[in-house]
């Protein structure tokens, strides 16, 4: 009954009122869905593309309607009150404006309206995007610690039991152990003999350049041309982030997230992400602007890329080609196992991998005393997933350790850079 009444109410409305309600409903639905998707960490790239196209068309229709209504009203006013002879009409909303000429005035006005509206729409979208992006900042968790390897220690403890010396000829019988009975107990344990972090800070593991509200975040990089969101979110990235927090004792974010390359520019220079994670198994397509933005992120903002081959030799070639465009003056080199990134906080005895899609050696791009990019050729992220891709426990444990090392390395290097910037200031 209620539904019938609502349908009758809608049927009785004028077309204009229906158009207004429909437009408002679309805007509310699109905005609400986008906001909820971001809060829930759900990736829906089609929503941004088609939703924005819908807003553009709705706005264009209302613009055409508004201009047409204004033009008709001006025409009626001129009929009622003719203007003085020789007076030029300059208002672009009026189809009788002198610069539209004498022929094809309506067509020329429509073209001018389309161009002006399109420019205004995309400028507004760019402004909103800039304001939205500029809100985000990245802060390290406050604290301190040392960048040292967790050592496997063997503790040898000599325990001498108390002995009783008794008369062997006593009427009471005793079982007397040998006087020199000594027990050696070997206890092998891995302990945190220090706090995992960098710098002089509070009594919690973290970074001296951090803040009380700062947290370690896991940010995946979104790009065009491939499946950047492979194994994104709960189950892979989140597992690694939680493991990092457990293993280091540092504060971590509640969930993982993703950012486009353009969004990296929205972070303030001294509050940018120390590390972004890039994976997939298909193509990587960057515009010239994105290539410049990525170079700026690595060199000017002291960022780092953690590349991970998600499943093909094609991705291997694509990643190397991307880095050649971003850093043409730097050549990739094998990352030694005795390098700090493979030793702190966990000593990595060999490079763990799920499948050697791009080889069995990690590659790195070295710039001014640090790794700006670390590329793993064997799908380390697959071992972070629930089920660990079926690999042995030794392998997925090493994959967690390697992920911890790379994340810590990037944040420690970023903390050093922040401290150096404060000294220069």
Task: Looking at this protein, list some descriptive labels.
Rossmann fold; 425 residues; two-stranded antiparallel ribbon; 5-stranded mixed sheet; alpha/beta
Question: Could you explain the architecture of this structure?
Answer:
By secondary structure, this protein is an alpha/beta fold. It folds into 2 domains: 14-133; 219-424, 3-Layer(aba) Sandwich (Rossmann fold). It contains 10 helices and 9 strands. It has helices spanning 2-12, 15-40, 45-80, 105-133, 237-248, 261-264, 288-299, 313-326, 380-384, 393-424; strands at residues 152-160, 182-190, 219-222, 257-260, 276-280, 305-309, 333-334, 363-367, 370-376. The chain has a 5-stranded mixed β-sheet with strand order 5-6-9-8-7. A two-stranded antiparallel ribbon has the order 1-2. The radius of gyration is 33 Å and the shape is elongated. Mean pLDDT is 83; it is low at 152-170 and 176-193.
Strand and helix layout:
Blueprint: H1 2-12, H2 15-40, H3 45-80, H4 105-133, E1 152-160, E2 182-190, E3 219-222, H5 237-248, E4 257-260, H6 261-264, E5 276-280, H7 288-299, E6 305-309, H8 313-326, E7 333-334, E8 363-367, E9 370-376, H9 380-384, H10 393-424
Helix pairs in contact: 2-3, 3-4, 5-10
**Number of DSSP strand runs:** 9
Q: CATH class of the largest domain, anyone?
A: Alpha Beta
Q: Kindly report the spatial arrangement of strands forming the biggest sheet.
A: 5-6-9-8-7
Radius of gyration: 33 Å
Query: Beta fraction of the residues?
Result: 5-15%
- pLDDT < 50 stretches: 152-170, 176-193
């Amino acid at each position: 009954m209620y539904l019938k009444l609502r349908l009758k109410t809608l049927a009785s409305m004028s077309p204009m009122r229906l158009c207004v309600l429909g437009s408002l409903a679309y805007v509310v639905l699109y905005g609400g869905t986008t906001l909820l998707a971001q809060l829930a960490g759900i990736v829906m790239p089609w929503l941004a593309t088609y939703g924005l196209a819908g807003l553009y068309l709705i706005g264009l229709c209302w613009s055409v309607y508004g201009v047409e209504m204004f033009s008709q009203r001006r025409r009626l006013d001129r009929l009622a009150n003719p203007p003085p002879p020789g007076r030029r009409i300059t208002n672009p909303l009026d189809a009788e404006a002198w610069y539209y000429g004498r022929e094809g005035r309506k067509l020329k006005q429509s073209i001018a309206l389309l161009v002006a509206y399109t420019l205004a729409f995309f400028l507004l979208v760019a402004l909103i995007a800039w304001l939205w992006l500029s809100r985000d900042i990245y802060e390290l968790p406050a604290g301190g610690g040392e960048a040292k390897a967790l050592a496997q220690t063997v503790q040898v403890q000599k325990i001498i039991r108390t002995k009783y010396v008794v008369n062997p000829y006593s009427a009471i019988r005793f079982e007397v152990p040998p006087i020199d009975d000594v027990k050696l107990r070997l206890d092998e344990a891995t302990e945190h003999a220090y706090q995992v972090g960098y710098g002089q800070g509070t009594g919690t593991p973290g970074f001296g350049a951090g803040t009380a509200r700062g947290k370690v975040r896991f940010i995946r990089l979104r790009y065009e041309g491939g499946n950047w969101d492979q194994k994104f979110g709960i189950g892979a990235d989140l597992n690694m982030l939680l493991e990092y927090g457990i293993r280091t004792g540092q504060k971590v974010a509640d969930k993982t997230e993703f950012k486009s390359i353009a969004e990296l520019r929205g972070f303030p220079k001294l509050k940018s992400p120390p590390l972004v994670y890039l994976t997939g198994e298909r193509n990587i397509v960057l515009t010239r602007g994105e290539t410049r933005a990525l170079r700026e992120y690595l060199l000017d903002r002291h960022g780092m890329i953690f590349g991970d081959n998600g499943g093909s030799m094609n991705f291997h070639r694509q990643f190397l080609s991307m880095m050649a465009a971003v850093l043409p003056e730097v050549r990739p080199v094998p990352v030694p196992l005795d390098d700090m990134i493979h030793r702190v906080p966990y000593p990595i005895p060999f490079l763990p991998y799920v499948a050697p899609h791009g080889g069995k050696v990690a590659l790195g791009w070295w710039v001014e005393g640090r790794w700006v990019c670390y590329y793993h050729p064997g799908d380390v992220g697959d071992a972070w997933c629930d089920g660990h891709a079926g690999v042995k426990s030794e392998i997925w444990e090493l994959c967690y350790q390697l992920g911890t090392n790379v994340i810590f390395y990037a944040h420690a290097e970023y903390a050093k850079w922040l401290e150096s910037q404060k000294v220069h200031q």
